[in-house]
Amino acid sequence: MGFLDIQNVTKSYGAVEVLHRVDIDVQEGEFLVLVGPSGCGKSTLLNMIAGLEGITSGDISIKGRVINGVHPSKRNIAMVFQSYALYPNMTVGQNMTFGLEMHGVPKPERNAALKDVAKLLQIENLLDRKPGQLSGGQRQRVAMGRALVRNPDVFLFDEPLSNLDAKLRVDMRTEIKKLHEKLKTTIVYVTHDQIEAMTLSTRIAVMYQGFVQQLGTPKEIYDTPANVYVATFMGSPAMNVLPSRVVMHDGTSYAQIKDANGADLLLKFSQANMAQWAGKEILLGIRPESITDPDGADRNSGNIVSLRNRIGVTEPAGADTFVTMELCGKDIIARMRADANVGAGQEFDFAINMDKAVVFDPKTEERIAP
Amino acid sequence: MSAITQDTAIRTGRVTRMLIYVTLLVFTLFYLLPLFVMVVNSLKPLSEITGGNMMSLPKTWTIEPWRQAWSSAQIGVEPTGLKPYFINSILMVVPAVAISTVLGALNGYVLTKWSFRGDKIIFGLLLLSCFIPFQIVLIPMATVLGKLGLAGSIPGLILVHVVYGIGFSTLYYRNYYASFPTELVRAAMIDGAGFFRIFWRIMLPISGPITVVCIIWQFTNIWNDFLFGASFGGQIQPMTVALNNLVQSSTGVKEYNVHFAGAILAALPTLLVYIVAGRYFVRGLMAGSVKG
Amino acid sequence: MTTTVQMDFRTRLQNWIPKLVLAPSLGVIMVFVYGFIVYTVYLSFTNSKILPSYDLVGMANYTKLFQLPAWTLAITNLAIFASLYIVISIAIGLTLAIFLDQKIRGEGVLRPIFLYPMALSFIVTGTAWKWLLDPGIGIEHTMHLWGWASFHFDWIKNSKYAIYTVVLAAVWQTSGFVMAMFLAGLRGIDNEILKAAQIDGASNWNLYWRIIIPQLRPAFLSSFVILSHLAIKSYDLIIALTGGGPGRSTELPATFMYSYTFTRNEMGVGAASAVIMLMTIAAIMIPYLYAELKEVK
């Protein structure tokens, strides 16, 4: 039994089911991120936890109390919205204490809580301003402050950083993380940004088409994605997925692929269980950072395969240089050290770390190894 | 090559500009002419009008026509002047504007922030009601007001104007509230505020601009109404009806100067609103024409 | 564990309040607008005279209506009045808007002058123009006094031309408003498009004719709808300006409906004429509103 329990929850609009049997247990102090493309159902799920949308079937409970049908204000939750939803007619201070006022908390207590939170977020000097006079980052802080003042059981964040510019977004991300580590609050956080999901969360639920595709720690999600969708959604640039076939030589299993000239290449598997797929089609998933120049290859890997192929385009990105090449008729992205000596059109020796390869069933797109 | 940086990219020649200014001047005269004639002639003795030039300034300035129009001119059969009718209009306009504005604000709030199945159809019905020709409701309205005992009374006229004003006031508030994120209401719900508290504490304080627009629109429309006043006013006539009676009366000498003074008196409240809050007036007109 | 979702009392109450708040307005509109429309439509099929009667007579009122010369005259007048009123108002409004958009000095003074007639009652407008157009004391008289003895302008007394004086007064009242709508449209056009067109070598004429005016489509549409709506409803202006005369030469459907219903005691015919008016407006408004609302979604 978790702190926040989502059990078998579905949501339908008329005959259309938009959320299918979601089961998530959130422990106290956990930072759960719901991530997925728009329309995947993540915001609907968050609104159902908040009580802003009804539950079609299933149960949501906080601290063991079922809260289906309980009014949002009685669930002891607080929410930070994408648009911040600051009341434009009230000062920052009034915004932050409105919820306490509505719950009948006496004024001295309200002011004490306000003072603490304002200090924590370093917005003491803004308390008398109106939201219209604040910058985007300041509004964001105030919105969080409004949630913190309530001292709720669960914090809900609905894409809180998506209205900020790129640099501020990174700063606020760090700040949210610091805040969570300091306060150990329970957070459910919705975003479509997989980097936010990876950096902030203690666990991630990747959602797509109303299903939770995978629930796990960031490392689990990244290294052992449950299916091709999760594999390609998480990580940037996306994981390379190659149509391939398993072949056996002397009791060892290899993935057979074609290079840019159409010649067959064999990549030795690190995984032991591939023999049962001998002769069958598979999808081979390799992240860009597992395809490098030979000097950049991971020293701890037990299975670096060298592969000579023609370079397509090079894209120096400062810290790294991304290189495309063609394998099995698809553009494959490799991630080189910044000073790797590569040029378009060259034949080059790529180093592939097969320890990190992920294998999927081409029919179900589910992971079969590791 | 620096000329491109100017705001409007269109450049006009000297002759074109002359023509533009002349045209604008001609139209300025066209729009000002009736007002000028009304004001000037309301300040002349009658003899100067019938014997003289309508466009010339008064030789003898007098406010006698204004005094007469206000308190002693013959309206229908009584020599009461326009004063009692002015008061009728005020008594009718103020409650009608207040009620229709409050209802419009509440309706707009519900339709944007508490949407439910079928709310679009309800809004459509309210919106369509703005645009019916009032002739279609005259006959049953006369019957119903009679049955309710409200025919020829101020409350009767208030009822009529509220009923046919709700559509527009709802339209205004709906469009205005739609521009605020629904998240605002959701945040307040989580904070523990209910329907009316959210309206009172969150929505109403931000409604200033649209309330001004709505009040101006309703005030102008109801003050300027003639059809309902003439049809249902009975003895309780509003200003417009009284002015028409004054001007159309066929008995005695036509006292043009008094008529002009009366016309200005009837126009004064709305003109005043226009001068004081013209910006909002225009916004109201536009909002009534361009849906959102 | 429960699977059916039970709302607490507060949540259920909060679900009902919005509907309860909306209910009075909706009720009033359903009775006083839609109910009344149904009632008037019903009356138009009865032999109501001075009082409503419920004896159905089929299409008799409509047949009678379209045989009445007064009605034929009223709709002919409406056709003349509406088409001239709409075309001239839009022409003047567009011209003034384009001219005002040329960085005119004193725009802030001119705009309110063009627009103020919209604040007036049609009764005031009618009264003012009635005297201005009166040959005995108005413009004709003034021109004579200024020495232009042959000047002749007595349309308001001439049953052939009186309808055009209605157009004049109505244009005076609303063309400034049309100007404001076009001006808003012009100010909303992306400046970069104009710069691009100039770089393409478009002359001012081409710029307006080919690039700008086509982008004012929404303003044209709104103007057309509002003006036609005003034209069909026009009642006060006729009463104040011409009283429907000389003779019956400026009767419009709105004045026809009023006099047949309330002074000639032909309620059935009056109701039928009101129904025709409603249908005319509906034919214009419903597609427009539908399109507008669909765009906004």
TrEMBL record, chain A:
Q: Which GO terms describe its molecular function?
A: ABC-type transporter activity; ATP binding; ATP hydrolysis activity
Offer one example of a GO biological process linked to this entry.
carbohydrate transport
> Per the record, a Pfam family?
OB_MalK
Q: Which residues form a coiled coil?
A: none
UniProt cross-references to Gene3D superfamilies, sorted A to Z: 2.40.50.100, Nucleic acid-binding proteins, P-loop containing nucleotide triphosphate hydrolases
Which GO cellular component does the record give, naming just one? ATP-binding cassette (ABC) transporter complex, substrate-binding subunit-containing
Sorted keywords for this record are: ATP-binding, Nucleotide-binding, Transport
Q: Supply the SUPFAM superfamilies for this chain.
A: MOP-like, P-loop containing nucleoside triphosphate hydrolases
* CDD domains, sorted: ABC_MalK_N
Q: Where is the ABC transporter domain?
A: 4-234
User: Do you know which InterPro entries this protein is assigned to?
Assistant: AAA+_ATPase, ABC_transporter-like_ATP-bd, ABC_transporter-like_CS, ABC_transpr_MalK-like, ABC_transpr_MalK/UgpC-like, Mo/tungstate-bd_C_term_dom, NA-bd_OB-fold, OB_MalK-like
Give the matching PANTHER family: ABC TRANSPORTER ATP-BINDING PROTEIN, MALTODEXTRIN IMPORT ATP-BINDING PROTEIN MSMX
Can you tell me which family this protein belongs to?
Belongs to the ABC transporter superfamily.
Protein name, as recorded: Sugar ABC transporter ATPase
From TrEMBL, chain B:
Q: Which InterPro entries match?
A: MetI-like, MetI-like_sf
User: Quick check: keyword Membrane in the entry?
Assistant: yes
List the membrane topology term(s). Answer: Multi-pass membrane protein
ABC transmembrane type-1 domain span: 86-277
Q: Which residues cross the membrane?
A: 18-40, 85-109, 121-142, 154-173, 194-219, 260-282
Cell compartment(s), UniProt:
Cell membrane
GO biological process terms, alphabetically, are: transmembrane transport
Alphabetized Pfam families for the sequence? BPD_transp_1 (PF00528)
> Gene3D superfamilies in the record, alphabetically?
MetI-like
Q: What keywords is this UniProt entry annotated with?
A: Membrane, Transmembrane, Transmembrane helix, Transport
Identify one Gene Ontology CC term for this UniProt entry.
plasma membrane
Q: Which family does it belong to?
A: Belongs to the binding-protein-dependent transport system permease family.
PANTHER family from the UniProt entry: ABC TRANSPORTER PERMEASE PROTEIN, GLUCOSE IMPORT SYSTEM PERMEASE PROTEIN GLCU
User: What is the name listed in the Swiss-Prot or TrEMBL entry for this protein?
Assistant: Sugar ABC transporter permease
Species, as recorded: Thioclava indica
UniProtKB/TrEMBL annotation, chain C:
Keyword tags: Cell membrane, Membrane, Transmembrane, Transmembrane helix, Transport
Please give the InterPro entries that the UniProt record associates with this protein.
ABC_transporter_permease, MetI-like, MetI-like_sf
Q: Does the keyword Cytoplasm apply?
A: no
The terms describing its cellular component in GO are: plasma membrane
Top-level taxon of the source organism:
Bacteria
Among its keywords, does the record have Ion transport? no
Regarding the membrane, this protein is recorded as:
Multi-pass membrane protein
* Cell compartments where the protein resides: Cell membrane
Q: Indicate the principal place this protein occupies in or around the cell.
A: membrane
Q: What residues form the membrane-spanning segments?
A: 20-42, 78-101, 113-133, 161-186, 267-291
Residues covered by the ABC transmembrane type-1 domain: 75-290
* Assigned protein family: Belongs to the binding-protein-dependent transport system permease family.
Protein name according to UniProt: Sugar ABC transporter permease
Question: What organism does the record attribute this protein to?
Answer: Thioclava indica
Q: What is the lineage of its organism?
A: Bacteria, Pseudomonadati, Pseudomonadota, Alphaproteobacteria, Rhodobacterales
